[in-house]
Amino acid sequence: MDTLDSTVVSVNDHLWTYLLIPLVVGAGLYFTVRSRGVQLRLLPEMFRVVREKTPPRADGRRQVSSFGAFTLSAAARVGTGNIAGVAAAITLGGAGAVFWMWMMAVIGAASAFVESVLAQLYKVRNSDGGYRGGPAYYMRRGLGKRWLGVLFAVTITTTFGIVFNAVQANTISAVAKGSLPNADTALFGPAVGVLLAALLGLVVFGGIKRITSVTSVVVPLMAVAYLLLGAAVVLLNITEFPRVIADIVGGAFGFRELAAGGVGAAIQQGIRRGMFSNEAGLGSAPNAGAAAEVSHPVKQGLVQSLGVFFDTLLVCTMTAFIILVTNPELAGRQGADLTQSALNDTLGTWAAHVLTLVVFMLAFSSMIGNYYYGETNIAFITRRRWVLPGYRVLVLAAVVLGALGSVSVVWNLADVFMGFMALVNLLAILPLSVIAFRLLDDYLAQRRAGLDPVFTRDSMPDLKPIQCWEPDRVKAPSA
Q: How far apart are CA 130 and CA 117, in angstroms?
C-alpha cells in the first residue's frame, strides 16, 4: 500500500507541476481577459439571475430551475474538500495556500462561466422533457469528436461516481470516529459505510427530480450551519484575526517561505485543493448546469460562476479561519481531524459533534451530486438499460469501501483522476470559448436594450448542431 501511495504521489507532483497548473492558470487568465472580467463585472447580475423563477412545461410539470441546478452543483462542490481538503492544503502548503485558493477561485470563475454556457447551448432533451448535458455533449456537438466525449464521460463517471464518493465516505467515517473515540474500531467503518450506502441508495434510485429536491433543502442548511459555527470560532478569537491575514499573505509571498521552497508548495496546494473544492474548469459542474431551464445559456454560466465564489470565498475561507485562529503551528493533526480539533479547542466537545453532523450533510450532498454526474454521462455513452443499475451498485460499493480505505491513498487517487479530467475539459473549451463569448455579447446587448435576454437557435443559425433552443419552446422567466 505504501508503494502504491508513493507512486501516485510522484505522478501527481509531475502532472500538476509541469502540466496542469500552467494550463489551469493560463486558461483562466485567458477567459478572464477575453470576457473582460465577466466573473467580476457581472456579479450583481449573477444574484439577479439565480433568483429567477422557471416557468412550468406545457404539461404543467416543473422543470429544474436555475437555483435547483445551482444547488445540485453546490452539492458536489461543497463537500469534504471544504473541510478536509482545506486543512490538508494548509498542512502541506502553509497558510499561504489559502491566498492561492482565493486566486484560483477568482480566475477559475471565468472557466466555470465558459464551460457552463457551452453545456447549456449543447444540452439535449430527455425522454421526460427535462435536459442533460455537459462536456461530453459539447465535445461531440461543438467539436464533432464523439470519441473525446466518450473518454471524458468514462473519466468523470469513474472520478465522481467511484473515487470522489469514496473520498466523501472516508471523511465521514474519520470524523465520526473522532467524535466517538470509544466506538469499536473493527465494526465502526463497515457500519458507517453500509449506512451511507443505504441512505444514498434511497435518493439515487429516485431520479433527478428527487435529487434536486433533496439538495435544494440540504445545501443551504449545511452551508448556514457551518458558516455560523465558523463565525463563532472567529469571533471568540477575533484578536488573532490580523495575524491570520498576515500569515496568509506572508505565506504566499514571504521571503522566508520563498527561500525554503514554501511558496511553491503553497501555490501548488492552493490550486490543487481549490480546484478539488470549487471544480472550476474541471468539467463537472456543467453537468448540473445543463439540467436547468433558462431563457439564455449565459444565465446559467453566471450562476455557476457564483457557485465558485460561494464555495471558495465563503465556505473554504471559513475553514481556513477556523484552523488558523486556533492552531497557528498546524501541529499534531491533519485533514478534517485538524478542523475538528480547532473547533473542540475553542467551543468545547459539543462542537466536534456538531461538525460530525455538518460533515455528514456536506459529504452526503456531494455524493448525490457526484452520482448524478456519472448518470448523465452514462446516458451519453450508452442507452442499454442494465448499465445504469450496474453503475448504481458500483457507486454504493465504493461508498462502503471508501469508509474502510486509507485516507492518503484515496485522496491521492482523487488528485490523479481530477487532473486528467481537467486536462481533457480545458483542452476542449479553449477552442469552443469563442462561442461562449459570442453568446455573452448577445446577452449583454439585450440587457442594454432593457430586455430580459432570450436565446433561440435562430439567433445564431451557424451554430450547429443544436438540439434544443427552438423558438417556440424558449420562454422568458416569470416575474
A: 17
